[in-house]
Amino acid sequence: MTVSFSSNELAALLGRSAWFRSAPGALQTQLIEAGRVERLAAGQRLFSRGDADDGLYCVLDGLMRIGAAGSAGKEALLAVIEPVNWFGEIALFDNRPRTHDAYAERDTALFHVPRAALAALLERMPAWWHVFGLLLTQKLRLAFDAIEEAALLPAAQRVARRLLLMAGGYGEPGALRRVLKVPQEDLAMMLALSRQTINQVLKQFEAQGALKLGYAEIEIADVRKLGALADLEIVGPLSSPH
């Protein structure tokens, strides 16, 4: 299903992405002109591991799951992608198949720039490869951080850091999301921890006043307390809940 948005509405939505805002104005304009808004129903698959690359996506509304299923049917959940975050850039660089599965956790609106349009755009303006490279390297830094944390940090500290990372839009500067719509089971899969361990850690954080737990959601009650539990310094003004 394709839904129409005006150029001004798209610019306002995409402008919430720090990567998009930092791109040259001409590139922003051409991405908006080349792309289209699509909607997925809850549970609908966007692409599967091994599919051919069909372009770059940005979540405008809703939630996407990125992961893979093993031969025994067990799911490895790498990330849940909330607005306004981009994904799908790896295949843009190597022209190889998709690395993981992507499907909608709930009804979701996506901005999609097809591969053919991106290829034509970059052929005309090769200097813009650097802009897309910055999107890729941001993800690579996050991946390295996750590998290091899994090897070196105790479970509680890993949980606190992942919650702060999700609340901050995976590195997006700006307003902090206070309420995370993430079930504890999903958090356990993302961190490769047991559901029991996640529950114990979250209840401990709640008792310390850092979190408030609800059904399939986690509210950050005190970001500085959570930062202390993550062994991170939290600076700057905090946004109101949204």
TrEMBL record:
Gene3D superfamilies per record: Jelly Rolls
> Residue limits of the Cyclic nucleotide-binding domain?
19-122
Q: Which PANTHER family match?
A: CRP FAMILY TRANSCRIPTIONAL REGULATORY PROTEIN, HTH-TYPE TRANSCRIPTIONAL REGULATOR ARCR
What keywords would UniProt list here? Answer: DNA-binding, Transcription, Transcription regulation
Q: Which residues form a coiled coil?
A: none
The reply to whether DNA-binding figures as a keyword in the UniProt entry is yes
Source organism: Paraburkholderia panacisoli
Recorded protein name is Crp/Fnr family transcriptional regulator
In this protein, which residues make up the domain named HTH crp-type? 153-224
Pfam families named in the record: cNMP_binding (PF00027), HTH_Crp_2 (PF13545)
Q: Which GO terms describe its cellular component?
A: cytosol
GO MF entries: DNA binding; DNA-binding transcription factor activity
From the broadest rank down, the organism's phylogenetic lineage runs: Bacteria, Pseudomonadati, Pseudomonadota, Betaproteobacteria, Burkholderiales
- Please give the superkingdom of this protein's source: Bacteria
